[in-house]
Protein: Transcriptional regulator GlxA family with amidase domain
Organism: Flagellimonas meridianipacifica
Amino acid sequence: MKHISILIPKGHVSVVNIAGTHQMLTWVNEFRKETGRDPLFQIQLVGLDMEADKNGGLFATRPEISIQNVKKTDLIIIPAIHDDFETVVKRNKDFMPWIVGHYKEGAEIVSLCVSSFFLAATGLLDGKPCSTHWQFANVFKEHFPKAILTDERIVTDSDGIYTSGGAYAFTNLVIYLIEKYADRETAVMAAKGFMIDIERGSQSPFMVFSGQKNHKDDMVLKAQEYIEQNYKDKISVNDLCENMALSRRTFERRFKSATSNTVLEYLQRVKIEAAKKELEKGRKTVNEVMYEVGYNDAKAFRDVFRKITSMSPRQYQVKYMPAI
C-alpha cells in the first residue's frame, strides 16, 4: 500500500486541492474494493503540528499527523498556498528539509498550482521541467531561473517530481498519478466519474496574454505600446528600429531580454489575443476575425493561432462563445 502525505501548510491554503485530491484517491480505494482488489493508498493529512488552520477564515483543516511522526512516505502532495511567497516560506520553512529528506529516501513529490514556488524554494526543481499557474509564470521565472518552466503544460513528470498548472488543473495531475500507480482502466473510470478531460495537456487555451511589462526598459515599453495600438496594420521590425533610433540587432536583443519574446512573437501574441476576444463573442466568422486582426493568409492565421492556443480558431470559438 502506498502512503500518501497530503500536506496542510500554514496560511491561505487551497481547500479544493486538499479535499479534491483526497476524494479522488479515496475513490480509487473504493473502486478497487468493488472490483475485488485491495485498497492502493493510505492517505494522511500531514501538518507541522496538529493545530487546525483556518485557511483564509472560511474553512478549517486539521492535520491527522505531524511531520515528526511520519517515518516513511511514498508520495508527498503540496497544495496551492495563496499567500505572498516570502510569507509562505517563512511560515512553512520546517516542511522544506522534511520534503527534501523524504525525496532523497525515495518519496515522490507533487506540487499543485502555485505550490511550485514553495517546492522550487527547496532546490528540488533546479534543472527540472515544471509547471505553475500561467498567471504567475513570469514571476516564477524571475525567482527560480534554474527551474525549467514549461508554463503551457498542465502536467510535468521528471525524476519523481510532478507539477500541475493552475487552479483545477490539479485534477488532471491526480488522474495522471492514478494511471501511474493503479492502471489505465481505473484512471479512465475516475475521469468519467469526476467528469475530467483525461487527455487535456495544455493550459494554452486558458492563457490571457497581457504583455510582459514588469521590466524597466522604457524603450521596449514604448515599442510594446506601439505594437498593441497598431497591431492591425503592417508593422515591420525595421520601422520599429527607426522609431526607436536603434540598430536592428540592438533593438531585438533588448526586446527579447525584456519580454522573453522576439518582436515577431510578441506581435503574433497581441494579434491572437485580440482574435481570441472577438471569437469569444461569437458574432463574427473566423475569416472576419482573421482580417480584423491583420492577417490575410488563412493558413498562416490558423497555424499561429494553434501554436499559441493549442486549438484551431473554430475550435476555440465553439468552446468559448456564448451558449445562446
Observations:
- The two ends are 49 Å apart (CA to CA).
- Residues 2-204 form a domain with the Rossmann fold fold (CATH 3.40.50.880).
- The mean pLDDT is 92.
- The chain has two domains: 2-204, 218-320.
